Amino acid sequence: MTEVYLALGSNIKRTASLVHAVxxxxxxxxxxxxxxxxxxxxxxxxxxxxxxxAVIAGCTDLSLPDLFNFTKAAEAEMGRENWIxxxxxxxxxxxxxxxxxxxxxxxSVNPELPRSxxxxxxxxxxxxxxxxxxxxxxxxxxxxRELADxxxxxxxxxxxxxxLELLSRS
Length: 170
What we know:
Blueprint: E1 2-10, H1 14-26, E2 30-34, E3 38-40, E4 51-60, H2 64-78, E5 80-84, E6 90-94, E7 97-103, H3 117-120, H4 122-131, H5 144-147, H6 164-168
Antiparallel strand pairs: 1-4, 1-7, 2-4, 3-4, 5-6
């Protein structure tokens, strides 16, 4: 079994999409746990509704390619698109985005593991630290809290009424 951390995000049908992701992932993860849900705005000057973000961690017996294919199939079940306006503006519209942040101690370029999102985005850093405050990135010296961009440690708003673990088990 390999320990994995996966980032979940949605800004369309947010609750249904994240519950779908956790239900699907709980079928291939054992001893899993899910962070609280955090609110964030689209990045890179993209326009669109606020995102709901979370991280799920657990152990799997899927190979890395099989886990990747599994996550892409789960995304496709809910739909995923990036839209660009005629003026070239990017609109970030995603029913479901699942990114493999870590796969055991694997360090690789393609796929990028561990994902650079782990040190660059508060909507990834904060849920990971909630699940494991002493999280260490594979292939890097130091704790995530030390390696992360300090601006990303400012608290994000939490969606208190949304408990993904509870909703996915019902």
